Amino acid sequence: MDHHDFEAPIREMEKKIEELQKFSEQTDMDLSANIEELKRQTEQLKRDIYSKLTPWQRVQLARNPERPGTTEYLAAFVEKFQELHGDRFFGDDPAIVCGPGRIGHHKVMFIGQRKGKNTKERLRCNFGSPHPEGYRKALRKMKLAEKFHIPVVCLINTPGAYPGIGAEERGQAHAIAENIFEMSRLRTPVLCVVIGEGGSGGALGIGIGDRLAILENAYFSVISPEGCAAILWKSADKAPQAAEVLKLTPKDLKSLGIFDDIIPEPLGGAHTNAAAMADTLKQYIVNTLDELVAVPIAELVERRYQKYRHIGIYLEEQQKALAVPGSKEPVDSLLPTPGDIAAAESGPTSVDDEEEVKPGRTEE
User: What is the pLDDT of residue 362?
Assistant: First the structure.
């Protein structure tokens, strides 16, 4: 199992426990009390370390090669899964896996990004960086799900879309943009979960939905920490600093209103107990789909539109209201309406209009 530098104290404790167990077996000495105490201390040490992870440490956990990916989750909790191939334009991209299956009592179209588990698989899947044909394949399957009125579940795990010459020649940017546009108005429930890395447009290409969730030790960012560091500081060595300023952790993303839910992981990360993580993720997907399928489709699509319409909008009035101690005004009532947005975008058209603009309201 791969380990990270910040896990060194844990490894030392586990090594001591292992040595005591071997010594006890070889000498027939009863050291069970000592071993149990060390296990208790190790458990507490894990809680202390994993509760105070830096953004960069969380990125490292998200990239752990033993972390369960799309194929492992599909095998763990999806029944009768049938993979579908090809985009009918160019070919099949193994970096994106698509197909219908059953989870709980729901029939679902699953779309997921696949990295591969060994060198051969990783090369075939391009290390989880999809080509345009992968995104076109995903969109075709989403449209198929829409036709048969079944929900779409997207499992996101990519460092980013492949930026090579061939991908650009085949319309990488257009394929991602088209997916974003079509997913925003897809007339069926869409649930998106970041299970590892959520890199840039590569994640957005299958990341527009009614509900966005992220695993506790995953991340979602407009650019990788290394890429950001190379631009700002001319050195990838500054990646830990870049991870801090990118606000890419689940807690930051939820506080910014981008993600709806954070799914807890086993202590130490999903790779430490893949079966427990699969059970947790399955239950979350089933419960969320129960909620989404109960909403009339027209209302669901409108909610989805408004959700993304409001991301990135900032109102000083909202901040002031939230800062007032004891304020009972609901946050939802402070969000701008479509009329507010249209008025702000068009701007005042006369002197009278200017007088009607509420002081203190700005929009960026």
Answer: 45
